[in-house]
Amino acid sequence: SRQFGFLKLNSPEQSKKKALVVLRAIKYLERMLVQAQAEKQRRKADSTKINPDELKDDDEDKGISIDPKTYCKLGHFHLLLEDYSKAMSAYQKFYSLKGDYWKDASFLYGQGLVYYHFNAFQWAVKAFQQVLWVEPGFPRACEVHLRLGLMLKVHADFDAALKHLTLALIDATTPASFSKLEIKFHIAHLYEVQGKYRLAKEHYEALLKEKTLPSHLKADICRQLGWMYHVVDCTILGITRQQKQAIAIHCLQKSIEAEPKSGQSLYLLGRCLAASGKVHDAFIAYR
């Protein structure tokens, strides 16, 4: 599960590894489970024929028990293939068979990722928090903090969200699926959704000064800034009423320059232009 988000098995360049390692491993584990279940059913049938009154589950299963960890491994492989439904099914089987499942940080992490995919944030938060409790030095701690921060932001638990996003930002030892610049963007956006507009503005503008800022992130930052200038009172942002719409339009135009096919930025630019009385230009942006 720790390789999820880093090992892209569904990408063309990983096709050989996908076929040779993961798919073969899944087939092997599934065959093992099927054979064990078939043997269990056969023994049950034989025991019933001999003496139904003496049938005991312990005798049936003797020598054919399956290690619950097999289901956990199967869940990890399905997760790597992004087959979330099968991953969840395997993880749930491990959960039901393993009494001390909560000690397995890799299981909790994998289960949390599946819950995250299905937007079951309440359960994902619980799973990720357990990961950090069981293994504070978990090799994917940065990713755990990142996803906790994003989910807690959605749940409006802003203080906790900021704590986890900050921990993800300062973690220099474990990898994450987001770059440090992207994490900084989400911290700025956190301030924005809290209504701390001036602080958000400062963080967005600081990001725009980064020399290695990728175009997609520049587009997102300029779009957020542009719309913020459009809707937030000018006194809060420390600008005049005359500057307000001009800066909003400029930021949205910069967003479109960075990402020309962004329908959202084009739509917001149209809104700003229409509000400024530039109806013809607004129509072009909408179109």
TrEMBL record:
It is found in: Nucleus. The keyword Nucleotide-binding does not apply. GO terms for biological process: methylation; regulation of gene expression. GO terms for cellular component: MLL3/4 complex. Its main location: nucleus. Keywords: Methyltransferase, Nucleus, TPR repeat, Transferase. This is Lysine-specific demethylase 6A. It comes from Habropoda laboriosa.
